[in-house]
UniProtKB/TrEMBL annotation:
Catalytically driven reaction(s): [thioredoxin]-disulfide + 2 reduced [2Fe-2S]-[ferredoxin] + 2 H(+) = [thioredoxin]-dithiol + 2 oxidized [2Fe-2S]-[ferredoxin]
EC class of the enzyme, as a word: oxidoreductase
Keywords: 4Fe-4S, Disulfide bond, Iron, Iron-sulfur, Metal-binding, Oxidoreductase
UniProt subunit comment: Heterodimer of subunit A (variable subunit) and subunit B (catalytic subunit). Heterodimeric FTR forms a complex with ferredoxin and thioredoxin.
Pfam families: FeThRed_B
An example molecular function term from Gene Ontology annotations: oxidoreductase activity, acting on iron-sulfur proteins as donors
Cofactor list: [4Fe-4S] cluster
PANTHER family: FERREDOXIN-THIOREDOXIN REDUCTASE CATALYTIC CHAIN, CHLOROPLASTIC (PTHR35113:SF1)
Name by which UniProt lists this protein: Ferredoxin-thioredoxin reductase catalytic chain, chloroplastic
Species classification: Eukaryota, Viridiplantae, Streptophyta, Embryophyta, Tracheophyta
Length: 144
């Protein structure tokens, strides 16, 4: 089941709903803390890719932070930044297949990021920033 896709559609139809999805909140609770090194790698990647793709971080940087930490956690545990906003029966197999390694194929081909990490300017939740500091990530997600 694709939890994130359904929650994003719900968000798209009701902009007053907070953009942090149920699945992202679950992700914060359920995951072990990723290494600071991997968080930094994924933070830099996210800034660079936002600039390169002409996309922006969410107006709520907490959303951005949670996704970056989820990517970092997968980088630690799987060796690849598998998208953290999906359910997988076999994470290792998905990571080696590559379709959902960030930036995933839907993002590369159509600028579709269902995690709300990379938002096109026309998205209701797009902010105007393409940078996020390690401190912002720490502050908005608690310990690291
Ligand atoms: S670009 Fe794709 S893999 Fe990366 S966070 Fe967004 S949906 Fe997930």
């Amino acid at each position: 089941m694709n939890l994130q896709a359904s929650s994003v559609h719900a968000i798209g139809g009701a902009p007053m709903v907070a953009p942090r999805t149920r699945f992202q909140r679950h992700l914060v609770r359920a995951k072990a803390e990723p290494s600071e090194k991997s968080v930094e790698i994924m933070r830099k990647f996210s800034e660079q890719y936002a600039r390169r793709s002409g996309t922006y971080f969410c107006v709520d940087k907490g959303v951005t932070s949670v996704v970056i930490k989820g990517l970092a956690d997968h980088k630690d545990s799987l060796g690849a930044p598998l998208c953290p906003c999906r359910h997988y029966d076999d994470k290792a197999a998905e990571a080696s297949q590559g379709f959902w390694n960030c930036p995933c194929v839907p993002m590369r081909e159509r600028k579709e990021c269902h995690c709300m990490l990379f938002l096109t300017p026309d998205n209701d939740f797009a902010g105007d920033e393409q940078t996020i500091s390690l401190e912002e990530i720490k502050e908005s997600t608690g310990k690291m």
